[in-house]
Design brief:
alpha/beta, Arc Repressor Mutant, subunit A, single chain, Rossmann fold, binds S-adenosylmethionine, 7-stranded mixed β-sheet
């Protein structure tokens, strides 16, 4: 006899995968409205929240209840208040804030809504089809990268031995958090950050806040077309190669190799895939992010990166697993 009971486990998996958008959109909508900042350390009822946020009262109640369901708000006798997790990560003023990253998430969400067209055409989602309120600029992106680098920069500086390096070039160094952490841990080190001029304005603010102006300088430029300088003991490239094609990255690695001092090292940090392309799941999904956002971006395997090193006459030395998602591959110049 045929078993016609639904397979609950697999059915649940599909339901959970499909419903993932709900929690993401609830979180990013509340962040975009400024709900967490408005609550701060206090509690408020729905009517007051709705008046202050200029939102509909019934809709605000439904949104707040869903946030209680996600453990981001608590219901109190007086209304709602932020949970400890919200206070730690969702207030813009918190040292561990993810608010700018969540705004970036809302922009990505808008783009991901057109994934179907990207897969059909093989092209990124054009800005023109997006809600123009959700098309961010370079500064917004740099602020989001500040949020995302806050934890990974510390781990990277801890695990990467730069004790013998005097000079480091951070290519596509964005808001400068890695440069700051590297200099904090290595008092002998000076860093040059290369990125576009607008992004470097955000980096300059972070550098000044850290009091590192004497040791970190900025160099506006494009890694493919502008002079990188020479004689660096280390060149660090974090989360840049996923924007470009494999051929572009071979060229990028060759350009970096020629800017190294004899015996200098190049570090590529990214969401590298295992060679069989079966994982990590994060990287497999992140490649889709690059599909909707860039012309030729992707996630690459460790083997692909080794081939770029070989073609630039660099000797692969080590792989450092930084976080659950980020891997750093280090190769040395044979010059
Ligand atoms: C995803 S962000 C990574 C920022 C930082 N390295 C990190 O890991 O947090 C990529 C950065 O590379 C910069 N970038 C992209 N293409 C570049 C190019 N051709 N030359 C220099 N910088 C570039 C972007 O402006 C951006 O700041």
């Amino acid at each position: 006899m045929q078993n016609d009971r639904p397979d609950l486990q697999t059915e649940q998996l599909i339901d959970e995968l499909m419903g993932g958008f709900r929690a993401a959109q609830i979180l990013m909508t509340a962040n975009r409205l400024g709900l967490f900042d408005l609550l701060g350390e206090s509690e408020m009822n729905c009517e007051l929240l709705a008046r202050s946020l200029e939102t509909d009262a019934r809709a605000t109640r439904i949104l707040c209840d869903s946030l209680v369901g996600l453990s981001l708000l608590e219901r109190t006798s007086g209304g709602y208040r932020n949970t400890a997790v919200a206070l730690k990560h969702l207030l813009t003023s918190s040292p561990q804030s993810k608010a700018a990253m969540l705004n970036h998430g809302a922009r990505l969400y808008e783009r991901w809504g057109h994934l179907y067209d990207s897969v059909k055409r093989g092209t990124p989602v054009p800005n023109e089809v997006l809600n123009q309120e959700l098309v961010g600029g370079k500064r917004d992106f740099a602020k989001a990268m500040t949020d995302s680098a806050r934890s990974s920069a510390g781990v990277t500086a801890e695990k990467l031995d730069l004790s013998q390096a005097l000079t480091l070039l951070d290519v596509g160094g964005g808001p400068g958090l890695f440069a700051i952490e590297f200099c904090t841990r290595n008092p002998q080190l000076s860093v040059v950050i290369m990125d576009d001029a607008e992004t470097l304005e955000v980096a300059a603010q972070n550098i000044a806040r850290a009091g590192m102006e004497g040791r970190i300088t900025t160099r506006p430029g494009d890694v493919f077309n502008d002079d990188l300088g020479t004689g660096y003991d280390f060149i660090f490239v974090s989360n840049l190669i996923h924007i470009y094609s494999s051929d572009d990255n071979r060229r990028l690695v060759e350009r970096c190799a020629s800017a190294l001092a004899p015996g200098g090292r190049l570090g590529l940090k990214d969401f590298f895939l295992d060679n069989d392309r079966l994982g990590p799941q994060w990287s497999l999904l992140f490649a889709v992010n690059m599909l909707v956002s860039t012309e030729k971006g992707d996630c690459y395997t460790l083997e692909e990166a080794s081939r770029w090193f070989e073609s630039a006459h660099l000797r692969y030395e080590e792989r450092i697993d930084l976080t659950k998602f980020s891997r750093l591959l280090v190769a040395r110049s044979c010059k």
